[in-house]
Every structure is written in structure tokens, then in C-alpha cells.
Amino acid sequence: MATGYPIPAGEAQVELRFKNSRFIGTAGPAPTVEEARAFVGQLRERFLDASHHAYAFAVGFGSSVTCGMSDGGEPAGTAGRPMLAVVQGAGLGDVAVVVSRYFGGTKLGTGGLARAYAGTAQAVLEALPRQEKVERVGARLELPYEFYARCRAAIEELEGRIEGADFGAQVALRVRLRQDRLEEMRRAIRELTAGRVGVEQLD
Predict the structure, then answer these.
(1) Boundaries of CATH 3.30.70.240 in the chain?
(2) Which residues belong to CATH 3.30.230.30 in the chain?
(3) pLDDT tens column, 162-187
(4) What CA–CA distance (Å, rounded) separates 23 from 104?
(5) Distance CA 169, CA 143 (A)
(6) pTM summary value
(7) DSSP line for 105-147
(8) pLDDT tens-place string over residues 68-111
(9) What CATH number labels 136-201?
């Protein structure tokens, strides 16, 4: 089962012109709906004198995604909806796109507006750097001192991060690792300790 998905690794910005109107597209990370709305607010401030600010965002990925959009004062359906269609087709999660328009004096018509906003959204998403978001989980285990060094090495080999260690009668470890590596770690710890140590998932 895949536990990761592509997300923005930073911001990107492009500028296109359609019949003398400037369309500035900006895309960036939006891990939550609140951060998506804050991103939109920042772009409104950055291009304060723009005629319109249309946006679309997708928080999450696949079957668990929250979308939002706005035409930014353009005629209904000419900006936000075409942009959202592009965002949904980009194969990205946790992303927001804002297109700021400076009106150039020539009306584009509804079809022209839709093409301009969708085209700008597509161009900025193509320029956007990407990285994989990997779901991580916390785990806890208690082990006798004799197994500590070998178990620690096994955890690190599975790219697990030891976030805390309490040294009492036994060693209690708090670990964070990729969700898809959890069962692998459980098997490794069982083998190293002859079944004496189990791994408890924390979240």
C-alpha cells in the first residue's frame, strides 16, 4: 500500500499574457485548509493592485482530499473551476494555486478567461518543484540492555528516528519511522530478541 504522495517542495511563479492582460500564477505548499487560505491572502497582499485573484487548492490526496476555489470576482465558472480541474489533474496533493490578473483593457470572454486561468495554473504547476510526502508513525518498545545496540542499528537501517530513550531497568525507546516500514521493524525486532520484545504503535 502506498503511503506517500507528491507535494510541492517550494513555490513557483510564472507570468503569461493574454490580449494585454497579465496573469501571474503562483503555486506553493498547502498542508491544511488554513494554510491554503493564508497562502491566498499573502498573494492578495503581494499583488495588491491586481484586478482579480482567483485560486484553487487541494489539501490531502486521492480519496481523502479537501478542495477549494474562487473566481476572484471574474464571471462565475471562468476562473476557479478551470483552475481546480488543472490542480486535480496534476497528481499533486497539499497544493494551492493563485492567479492574479492585471486587466489589460481587452475583454477575453468567458471561454478566453477559462483558457487563460487554466493555462496559467498549468504553467505554474509544471514549474513547481516536487517532493514525496511520507506518512510517519510513532512507536514504542522496551528491551533488555543486551539487545539495545543491535536493535538501535536495525531501527536506523530502516530509516527510523529515535526520538527518546529512557534508561531504567530496561531501555524504553520512542521511535518515529515511515508507516510502510513499521511491520518490517516489528519483524526485525522480534528476530533480534528471539520474540521477547514487541513494538507498540503510538499513533
Answers:
(1) 136-201
(2) 4-133
(3) 999 999 999 999 999 888 888 999 99
(4) 10
(5) 9
(6) 0.69
(7) SS--HHHHHHHHHHHHHHHHHHH--EEEEE-EEEEEEEE-HHH
(8) 999 999 999 999 999 999 999 998 999 999 999 999 888 888 99
(9) 3.30.70.240
